[in-house]
Design brief:
With about 190 residues, the protein is α+β, with helices and mostly antiparallel strands. It has helices at about 20-40, 85-105, 140-155, 155-170; strands at about 45, 75-80, 110-115, 130-140, 175-180. The chain has a 5-stranded antiparallel sheet. The radius of gyration is 17 Å and the shape is globular. The two termini are about 30 Å apart. About 15% of the residues are buried.
Length: about 190
């Protein structure tokens, strides 16, 4: 295991007025991306293990003003629990969940869990008192993401062997976020 620090990931969800998504993206691209990266940002999620962090980006961030959108999609699946996620859950995920996800076309890109450190920058509030395990998978297109979800829904192994145990370990139904990388995203 490496002694190098792992980046903390901030996962935020915003409620927008209709038609305002592009305005928020433009504002982030112009004003927030580099400044938040420079100061280290607010703590929220950390890698579950030393090997489960996001991979080092293969390319540099596109410059301000770049407008070409990548066709890829990211699926973030959030599991909630009434207590911290422990080694038993991580082992179950690695041995039971991950293989079915891979068989249906979704190899996890990163696995993160709640970082319970104090928020040292209160101007950007974070949700506290929650225990979350999140896995992220990257797909080359929306069609491939949809194909994965369809295959998972039809998987006997998922429904018969994995889902009953997984559901018993969680506090509620998992939440899935389908994310479209912005023009300047490092996840391309």
């Amino acid at each position: 295991m490496s002694d190098l620090p792992h980046p903390i990931v901030e996962l935020r969800q915003y409620t927008l007025r209709p038609g305002q998504r592009d305005a928020l993206i433009d504002l982030f691209d112009l004003e927030f991306v580099e400044t938040q990266e420079a100061v280290g940002n607010v703590l929220l999620l950390r890698p579950v293990t030393a090997r489960s962090a996001f991979p080092v980006p293969a390319a540099v961030r596109p410059p301000i003003g770049h407008t070409a959108l990548p066709p890829s999609r990211i699926l973030a699946t959030l599991y909630y629990r009434d207590r911290p996620f422990d080694e038993a859950f991580v082992n179950f995920f690695d041995r039971q969940v991950r293989p079915v996800l891979a068989d249906t076309g979704a190899t996890p890109l990163a696995c993160m869990q709640t970082e319970h450190a104090e928020n040292t920058f209160p101007a950007l509030p974070v949700r506290t008192g929650e225990n979350v395990f999140v896995w992220f998978a990257q797909f080359p297109s929306m069609a491939r993401l949809s194909d994965h979800l369809h295959q998972l829904k039809r998987s006997d192994r998922w429904h018969d062997q994995v889902l009953p145990t997984l559901s018993a370990m969680l506090a509620c139904t998992p939440e899935q976020l389908r994310l479209a990388p912005t023009a300047r995203s490092l996840l391309r």
